[in-house]
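Notebook p. 47: complex prediction with (R)-mevalonate.
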Amino acid sequence: MSKTIKGYSKLSKEEKIDWLVKNYLNDDRSIKSEIMSYWHEDNAVQNRFDEFSENTLTNFYMPFGVAPNFLINGKTYCIPMVIEESSVVAAMSKSGKFWQDKGGFKTEVISTTKIGQVHFSFFGDKALLKSYFPSLKAQLLEGGKYLTVNMDSRGGGVLDIELVDLTEKEDGYFQLKVSFETCDSMGANFINTVLEEYANLLKEIICTENGFTEKVSIIMSIVSNYTPDCLVRAWVECKVEELGEVSGISAADFAQKFKMGVRIAEVDPHRAATHNKGIYNGVDAVIIATGNDFRAVEACGHVYAAKDGHYGSLSHCSVENGIFKFWIDLPLAVGTVGGLTQLHPMVKHSHEILGNPEAKALMEICAVAGLAQNFAALRALTTVGIQQGHMKMHLLNILNYMEATNQEKDYALTYFIDKIVSYTTVRVMLDQYRSVHKTAK
Ligand code: MEV
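Predicted complex, structure tokens below:
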């Protein structure tokens, strides 16, 4: 039976834990101590974590790792990654190494425009609304200036406001579609603040004094997480023969198989979802490490992957005139100032490790992480298969699950060098080892 409580957020942190343990964790006091053991020893740091969210009880650990030796536009990066999936950082590092002596990764930021919308209903004179729009736009820009002045001085601000007529899709439905440049900030809060002000002004301006007989009704004002014009391209290329023999497959055959692997994701949504998931293994890990919003970034990418009317691959590959080229165009709205960037200690260090990049450079690094991850996955998939590397990395998780000792882990790591890893094979190996060494659990 589920238990409810009023005013939970008003309780102290310990009271909140007590309530949770009593009602949902069998009143097991040892779990209370365990939960509290994840608190940071420095109260100031812990308070900061607590205040990131509501009803915070403790911290939830995720591995923070790095993928070194990434050559991007001639500069070497060590890329911080936060991810729980065992094989991702290893795969990433493998790709970094593979491309290091082939010119590395190249990138280009294509555009940095973000979008926000005021959605409203208007059932009055459509033609009048449209003819009045230039004046409305000028009044909105003027009226919102006090909010944009800082961003303007940083080289950003509101780029344009359009009136979008969607009445053919839904009776009376219009939008103000506002485009923004938010420089080094992700910009969602700035955009939402400006939009809400525009909505207020819109309501005031479309009134009888200006010749309208109907009012507008504001439905909502919100940033769009679909930012196809905040776009970065990353690519790798080399002569086919420079690919070398890959896992026993000739360079030419590998190039063709790899290209076909990408093509399948271009045409088949089932494969595309998995293919793009692999891309976000890399992107999200950097996004989280740098304190950005991985939900926004993923939502955007998946809409972009369907921009041609069907869901497909975010990456592409060509093999032409003896040149292998593999690239990705990724919409990425990220920030290097604001948000958690100066508040979360490890986020701050991630930015330092990357050389405190501007937002554009961070877009490039994230796109490279996605492409590198995708390269590693396809390289394995089209040659030896994914399980060999994946399960090798997963081996430690299985061993930990089976409560293996350090000695047993050392033995297993050597034992499985040339064997298939699965729960069953590890179980059998451990049982044999324990019966010989009399260390059974
Ligand atoms: C697993 O997290 C990601 C892959 O499935 C990606 C892919 O299939 O391309 C290996």
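Notes: The pocket of (R)-mevalonate is lined by residues 85, 274-275, 277-278, 281, 377, 381, 386 (CB under 6 Å). The mean pLDDT is 95.
Next step: compare against the earlier run before touching the bench.
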